[in-house]
Structures are given as C-alpha cells and as structure tokens.
Amino acid sequence: MYVELKQINKSFGDFQASRDVSFGIEKGSLVALLGPSGSGKTTILRMIAGLETPDSGDIIIDGARVNDIPPAERGIGFVFQNYALFRYMTVYDNIAYGLKIKKMPKEQIKKRVTELLELTGLTGMEKRYPNQLSGGQRQRVAFARALAPEPQLLLLDEPFAAIDAKVRHELRTWLREMILKVGITSIFVTHDQDEAVEVASQIIVTNQGRIEQIGEPKEIYTEPKTPFVTEFIGQPTFIEDYGKLKGFRKEKKYKGAIIRPEFVEAFKSDNKTFKDVMDCSEEGVITDILFRGTSLELKLDVGGVTLTTHRSLDRRKVSVGEKMRVIIYRVFAVDETAAYPMDNEELAKRNVKYNHLEAYLYSKDGYFVV
C-alpha cells in the first residue's frame, strides 16, 4: 500500500471526527472519500496532508510514518475547494509559486510551467489574473500549481464544489483523464455520489467519523454492506413494513427494507411485454411526475407505500392519478448493522430474475425490460 491509515482517531473538543479509521490505498489509485457533511472525510484528508494531527494512530506514506513530518516535506500536492489562488499573481506565477519557493532555476521553472499549461489546456492564458478566468479555468490553475513540484500524492478537497453544474460535469471527465495520464496517486473529498462514481476507481464511504465501506464504485452501488451505505447511495426509499409488497415476506430480524427506483417497474395493464408476470404485479397509482431531462421520475402509491421509479421518455404517456401495474424486483432488507438483498419470491417461482447490474428483468425465454 502506498498510503495507509492505521487506527486513526481525531477529536475537536467533544466532537470525534475520526473513529478508528483504517484503510490502504495502492500507488496510482484515484480514490474518493465520500460522505455527508460532518462525516469526517475532510479531516482524514487534512491529516494525510499534515494540516491536522491525529490524536492516535499512524499515517504511512510510501512506507514511512509521517505523523511528525511537516506538510511541506511530505511530497503532497493539495487542491483546495476555493482554489486558494493568489489574486495579484498571473496564471504563470501562480503555477510557478512552489517552484520559486524551492529556488529552482528560471529555465527549469519555465519549462515545467509550460508543460503544465499545455497539460491543463491553459496555454495562452499565462498572463491572465484569476479574476479574468472562469471557475473551471481557475480550478485548472489550482490543479497545475499542485502538480508543479511533482508531488507523489495529490489531495483534492471538494474540487468541484464552487463550479456550476455544466462545467462541473466537464471537469470530472477532465480531472480523471489528467490524473490517469500523470499517474499520480490521488484522493479527493466529495459529498456527491455521482461525482464519486464517475471519477474514482475506488470509493471510501465515511459516516460519523467511521469508515462504512470501501470498494469499487459498482461494488459500493450494487453490494452495499451497511444500512447507511444502502440509504446514502442511489435514490432510496425506506419502508418499514415491506411485507405489504407482493412477493416479499417481512422477517422480524429486519427493521425494514430499502428500495431503489431501478428495483421498481411500473407499466400499463395492457402492456403485453409483461403478460407472463402480470400476476406478480400489484396496483399502484401515480401521485406525482417529475421531468428529469432524460427520463420521468414517477411517485407511486402502492397499498399505502410511496415508491419511486424512472420511466423512459419514449414510453407511452402517463398522468397523475393513473392506475399502473407495479412489480418490485428486489429490496435491501436491513438490520442494525448490515444490508441483505432480497429478491421477489413470486418472480423466483417463475424462474424470472432481476439483473442488478443492468437493471432489467429476464427469464429463460428472454427479456421483459431492457
């Protein structure tokens, strides 16, 4: 492991920000620390950087314990949420700042800055000042400045938080490509699950100072290990009495179940695609319809339970108050410590299964939903 945290604890007064935090990161990885506000993710990042000191535990980078090593000597580049650019310095001077501090020869500085301007798509902007740049361009300058001293580890604290939605989406792709191209081990903090899933090769989910789960994005999404991860990832609905739903039996050992939109299919009663599983469905009523750009989000009342599902725009028009047939493919039953996938028993009797990776229903005779 290139970066290791071993039983890290950190408190600020009565607030414990980190509780026995332990994990390892391989060299060259792009890792997201994902969690809600106050979950401890930024504290972890700042301790790795040396901006905070753990109360106990060890931080190891490239085999060396760095707890007592000053931030400037850890070989780390840091990109702050608010960019932290020097307002009265040009783009060139902002990028060159760390190299000048190291007293690098001018020709070497010029060569390195020129390389980074090209790498980050800022060529021709070197004489501009931060207030002459867009938010996305300022973030690229901050990224280039952090890379200038050629750190072995790059840390980013919510790097897209101050950028509008369209530019943020573009920068996600750009950042992933740049980091993979440079090959630098990187850790970024985010509370945006879409951002983590899209950018990171590995996700560490934090909650109340603890690590809830570590895994690849697909694993975190499809195989949540704890109730928190199950509810935090995706667009979940918690139902206490899930035994009301057709195809599911409530077991006393579970406190309830979590259902995601992709586990719910709503269709019109005359839809022949579902004729072989019609008796596995139950009646629901559309209570709300929201346009989500690429799809419709439907709210359904199913026997007093409110469920959410998504509907493709190319399917037949539906309206509020319309009765639909509804099938729930799967739920995650949860107790106090873990989550357990539970498939619809009525579908199982007919050898019909739910593909959780592709979100469709299928049987030996073919697909029901694609």
Characterise this structure:
This protein has 370 residues and is α+β, with helices and mostly antiparallel strands. The protein has two domains: 223 residues, P-loop containing nucleotide triphosphate hydrolases (Rossmann fold), CATH 3.40.50; 133 residues, Nucleic acid-binding proteins (OB fold (Dihydrolipoamide Acetyltransferase, E2P)), CATH 2.40.50.140. The chain is built from nine helices and 22 strands. The longest helix is centred in the middle third of the chain and has 18 residues. The mean pLDDT is 89.
List the helices and strands and how they pair.
Blueprint: E1 3-12, E2 15-25, E3 30-34, H1 41-49, E4 56-61, E5 64-65, E6 76-79, H2 91-101, H3 106-119, H4 135-147, E7 153-157, H5 165-182, E8 185-190, H6 193-199, E9 202-207, E10 210-215, H7 217-222, H8 227-232, E11 237-239, E12 256-259, E13 264-267, E14 282-291, E15 295-302, E16 305-312, E17 323-328, E18 330-334, E19 339-343, H9 345-349, E20 353-355, E21 360-363, E22 366-367
Parallel strand pairs: 3-8, 3-9, 6-7, 7-8
Antiparallel strand pairs: 1-2, 1-4, 4-5, 9-10, 11-12, 12-18, 13-17, 14-15, 14-17, 15-16, 18-19, 20-21, 21-22
Helix pairs in contact: 2-3, 2-4, 3-4
- CATH architectural name of the largest domain: 3-Layer(aba) Sandwich
The general outline is elongated
Beta strand %: 25-35%
Number of domains: 2
Q: Sheet with the most strands?
A: 6 strands, mixed
Q: Roughly how many Å is the radius of gyration?
A: 25 Å
- Total number of strands: 22
CATH topology of the largest domain: Rossmann fold
